[in-house]
Amino acid sequence: MRLFFDESGNTGTNLSDSQQPIFALSSINISADEANGLLAELMRPGQSEVKFSKLRRTAEGRQAVIRLIDSDALTPRTAKFAIADKRYYLISHYVDKLTEPVHYDLGVDLYAKDAHVAYANVLYFAGSHIFPNGHWDALLNAFLGAIRGPSDESYRALDRTAALAVSNAIPDSAEFSMPLMLAAPQAKKLLKGFVNTATFDPALDLFAILVQAWMRESDGYLDITHDQSKPMKLPEDFLRQLMRRDVSNRIIGFRGRQAELPLRVSTLEFGDSRAHSQLQLADIVAGAAVAAFSPSRTEDEAADWERVREAPYALVVGPMWPSVSNIGGAASDPQPGEGSLVDGQMQFFRDSGYFDH
Predict the structure, then answer these.
(1) Residue 3: beta bridge partners?
(2) pLDDT per residue over 147-186, tens digit each?
(3) If 26 and its partner were Cys, which of 81, 176, 304, 353 is the partner (CB 3.0–4.6 Å)?
(4) 127 and 271 inside one domain
(5) CA–CA dist 237, 240 (Å, integer)
(6) How many domains does the chain have?
(7) Where are the beta strands (DSSP E) in 134-256?
(8) Three-class SS state of 273
């Protein structure tokens, strides 16, 4: 199976960019001839390629994108995209890397029954209420500062910010303030294995999510061409590590939230969209996804993208997206031998020797 990937809204580990709060990665499974036929209706005289950034500027261009998204040519068999709310993604790492280990030491397994998902969603929707007066935002910024620029000073800043947040937390919030109080002084130790890696880049997780989705539809190996991208090239080593065939095959995660490693990818190359019409199509899908789900749309665009927001849900896989529905209810009990996706992936990297260098 030959796939073509492109992204929109990629800011790497800068997860607090207010101008680009959403990241999307799209994938296309269409022949060049089919892609050329779809793009022909979008091409303007004198253009050498179709770019979403140009199409979105006019009502005519937006309508053309809507017709493409609504067309029978784009189905779950030919197109998929994954999307991430960067703030939610940052909060998820805050839970995974800081509060989960503290809970575990206290005898509470946050990964069991997906309690970590509920915990992250509570913080997404109510973090500014639990830690009011700007302390929640300050805490997230300090955490982001520690993972992007690890140093003794950034760890001390995180500890100071956490102490202020805890001291100003609302009453009866011990479930959230106590783990923070215990974790912040240990941040350097807790984050040691993750800093200076691509762990905190959502492009990696969304890439793996999309590949897993295509793997479920094919028993063979995938050949992937990704659009040339400086942000995506940075974590390339990390991506290729996930494809190491010399590491034993395994299924990680709990039932209902599982993944196969290594990724069954035969080739991963970076190509020029001018040479691959499928990459141009992937650019349009990724751009439309970000425009549809972004809160910062202009008034002129809002009505158009609202239609797109409804249309592509069949194409979405594994969104890293906050939802109130994820707060209530619980997944099934873990089965013997099962572990979390996070633990499984970290074990895979240890087995591959990634952390040795």
Answers:
(1) 224
(2) 999 999 999 999 999 999 999 999 999 999 999 999 999 9
(3) 81
(4) no
(5) 5
(6) 2
(7) 222-227, 250-254
(8) coil
Q: How far is CA 305 from CA 5, 59, 62, 145, 322, in A?
A: 22, 11, 8, 33, 20
Shared domain check, 207 and 63:
yes
pLDDT, tens only, 268-318? 999 999 999 999 999 999 999 998 888 766 666 777 777 666 655 678 887
How many residues does the structure list for the chain?
357
- The C-alpha atoms of residue 252 and residue 230 are separated, in whole angstroms, by 30
Are residues 141 and 220 part of one domain?
no
Residue 144, number of CB atoms within 10 A of its CB: 20
| Pair 116, 77 in one domain | no
Residues with Cβ within 8 Å of residue 322, at least 6 apart in sequence? 85, 88, 120, 121, 124, 125
pTM for the whole structure:
0.92
Last residue of a domain, one of 158, 191, 224: 191
